[in-house]
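Hi R.,

As promised, here are both runs. First protein below:
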Amino acid sequence: MIILLTGKEVCFIEAALLLEADWQQRLHEVWTCIIPEQEAITRIMNRNSLSEEEARKRLSSQANNQYRVDKSNVVLCTLWDYEVTQKQVEKAWLLLKERLAAG
């Protein structure tokens, strides 16, 4: 998705493996969503009908939260209700617009 904002184009790329592929240096900013490990395991189990062991194995094959935080410019947490996540995104978007206007 590309949005024109303050005379600049903003392009959004949803790429689950962006950090694992080490592509972050090709972008101006990386925004990441994280959740605590146990919540991730629970969601994987529920979404994919996997055992806890299978979910842990799947999660262990991915970058952990600390790695994602270290490689990202903006970090959002999706642990809470949708409305809380929406507020986080809206605030991050507002701050991005301010950075673009200033720069």
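And here is the second one, sequence first, then its structure tokens:
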Amino acid sequence: MSYKIIEEIGRGGMGCVYKAQDSNGRLVALKMMSNKVTCFPEYRQLFDVEVDALRRMNSPSVVRIIGDPYDDKDGNRYLPMEYVDGETIDKIIKREGAFPFSEAVELMLEILDAMDHVHSHETIHRDIKPSNVMVRSSNHDIFNSYESTPGLTRGYLPGQICIIDFGIAKDAKLGQSGHTVGRIIGTDGYMSPEQANGLNIDLRTDIYSLGCLFYLMITGHPAVPNGKNDHETICNIFQHIPVLPSQAAPGIPVAIDEVIKKAVDKDMTKRFQSVKAFKDALEMATGRATPMITVGRETYNDICISHVDVSRRHLNIYGCTGNNIDGTKRYYIELEDVGSTNGTGINGRLLKNDSITVDYNGTVNFPEVFLAGRPELVLDWNYVMMLLRGKGWTPEPPGGGAPPPPPPPPVQPKNNNAVLWIIVGVLAAILHVILILLLIV
């Protein structure tokens, strides 16, 4: 397929990106690697790594390839990619300053979902920064062309953000830090200390960069400032401690300070160990956490069922709140079998290492749930709902009004044995008095 170049939309040290049009009139982003670097095998490998990484992705929040790579007669290499109509976070902040806090949180949650998808495909981005995350100009329904992506369905539509530029992505299965062009690969203060030091990296290097990105989004200032030269910037990466977000900008909750501190810890072993852990902490700190109760054999679960066929951690139950297409609230329960040994019976169907959702409207008949498929290990939905409400999930019944009160705690049966022993004691005392009187007489 041939492409007609319209204009240049970005340029870097290895090439540039053009806005172009294919032979069908569709707009594309045509990424070009200059012949000045394609003559070096290590640069061509970077190009091939990006192609391989993106072909494994299937998320509306990750830029996609829409054509095969090709070379022109001069040795320049091209990759046709999705044209994202929008602006980078970098441009938005330079023009308008920090995002409103609530908007920054919503966008960050989607960015974390997208990066969880990237990491689940064993890929490290290695260059997360504000100019590599775009915010689309308007709502798109591009997600309709993708397969269902876990984690992108709670409370907001997917595809509002788009992560771009996987040119230095690394396969997380590799034991070394990948082929490095020059001493280090990365950009500015968003590069992790271990990456700046040329050490082996893993998924936690992206977590550091994500923490720095979020810091910029909520404060308008970089967590680690750029120096006058590369050496000074690297020194800042190793030594600079960011001002706490609640002190750097008004209106940021103090709870966010701990989230940022953990995300950008210079010791990778003290950071969040996964993107999901980062997201969970952010949701908890901002009151967006999805109430969850756990079911399993061990006593640390919310519902402990001591049976040999029940796994230590068997089932997660979420109380979820979202939006219907018409804008009304949607309340639903998500049941997630978390890799149990014997699975979970849901209305006669075995659920194993999978999840289902059940809409809740205040009168719904919940499915029969049997742990390990055993009828005697049935889930008590009244108790489940009481626990979920205790964790803050308060679904409103249709038409508004207060939610129904939680069921009362089970009434303990009276201890009839205690009453019997009292009677026996009284009779014994009476007999003792009678015997004493008989002896006196």
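A quick note on the second one: Residues 416-440 form the longest helix (25 residues). Let me know what you think.

Best,
J.
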